[in-house]
Specification:
The protein is an alpha/beta fold. It contains twelve helices and 17 strands. The model has no long low-confidence stretch (mean pLDDT about 95).
Length: about 375
């Protein structure tokens, strides 16, 4: 059925508490909502989270992208039309992944609702089922705030943690000491440096002073410093998680010859340019034998939480961690009903999602 309208609006939802890391301080969402409506009034919804320091995008650049491509996108009638546009506009999506993500998700949601099918069935993927285990994410707040967050996570049973490091050595030592003081054999801790150091030797000198067992280190060096990360992985004997340094499937050529223990890829649907491109990255990672994390932009609404479930569900055997699903635990309000968020033990039950398309509606 014909798409009658395609609209975009910015989402500025306050956080319940400020989230801090080495690249940014966030007190509210930085995202866009795209809605597509057919001639019967059925509506599809999509979300994109532009990050200047990740993909170079802004809210304004997403608006420009949609103004430029609106008429083409409104000609889509099926999943095949969407797939064809993705295949024919690789370089354009490379420059505007969050923008395209919002459009693609909205169209897939609409087509699923028109067909009465969830997007997994629409895309020929396994049906959503079971439970999804999420990681706790601890920002670079002061020690008092860190401890409060840590206690909240531990009180509901979290054992998997991502800790943002600050570059302030004693602060990071104190925080990791608090975390490892639980002496829980199930505890897993990985670090996220958000491109903190300019060279590998400085990073190694710093990181080797931190206490406790670390399972992986995310983006310790400047974006794209693969050689430095290889060296650091060898010295630290832990894998490097690529996030800002890995945005699209053609970047596998830069890492696929390395030992499998060198890398983990953080797949965030928005930065990858939508569900289809995220699936392509996960598929190639599985073929090579590289594990993945299903990540999230800070402040995502339930739309992107739901989109990420499609990837996590289809590639459970290579997913070593999943991030996001904060819903109204972080946001003052969610735009979706239901609001998808983890519960006890950091788990989200697939039964929380039902219905065609993404299975979500906008809150009244």
């Amino acid at each position: 059925m014909a798409i009658k309208s395609l609209n975009v609006q910015s989402l500025n939802i306050p956080f319940k508490h400020t989230f801090v890391h080495a690249s940014a301080v966030r007190a509210m969402t930085e995202a866009v909502l795209v809605t597509v409506t057919n001639s019967d009034g059925i509506e599809g919804i999509g979300e994109g989270c532009p990050r200047r320091y990740v993909t170079g995008e802004t809210i304004d650049s997403i608006r420009d992208f949609i103004e430029t491509h609106r008429e083409q996108c409104m000609t889509f009638r099926s999943v095949q039309d969407v797939k064809q546009w993705v295949a024919e506009h690789v370089s354009i999506i490379d420059q505007n992944p969050a923008a395209w993500c919002a459009v693609e998700n909205a169209c897939l949601d609409l087509f699923g609702k028109e067909a009465g099918l969830p997007i997994e069935t629409l895309l020929g993927l396994p049906s959503l089922n079971g439970r999804f285990q999420y990681s706790a994410v601890l920002g670079t707040d002061n020690l008092q705030s860190f401890e409060k967050q840590l206690q909240r996570y531990r009180s509901v049973g979290f054992t998997d943690f991502k800790v943002k490091v600050t570059g302030r050595l004693q602060d990071d030592i104190d925080k990791l000491d608090r975390l490892h003081s639980f002496k829980d054999s199930k505890l897993r801790v990985r670090l996220d440096a958000n491109n903190l150091w300019g060279d590998a030797e400085r990073a190694w000198s710093y990181l080797k002073q931190l206490p406790g067992r670390i399972t992986a280190i995310e983006e310790p060096l400047k974006v794209g410093d693969y050689d430095g990360c290889r060296w650091l992985a060898r010295e630290m004997k832990v894998p490097i998680i690529l996030d800002e340094s890995f945005l699209r499937v053609d970047q596998f050529v830069l890492i696929q010859s390395d030992p499998l223990s060198t890398w983990i890829i953080n797949i965030r649907v928005s930065k990858m340019g939508g569900i289809l491109r995220a699936l392509a990255v996960a598929k190639r990672a599985k073929e090579i034998g590289i594990p993945v994390i299903i990540g999230a932009q800070v402040g995502e609404t339930s739309i992107l939480t739901r989109a990420a479930l499609t990837i996590a569900n289809s590639y459970r055997d290579i997913v070593i961690a999943q991030e996001g699903a904060f819903g109204t635990l972080l946001l003052e309000r969610d735009i979706c009903d239901p609001s998808l968020m983890f519960g006890a033990g950091g788990q989200l039950d697939a039964r929380a999602v039902s219905g065609p398309g993404l299975g979500l509606g906008l809150s009244p």
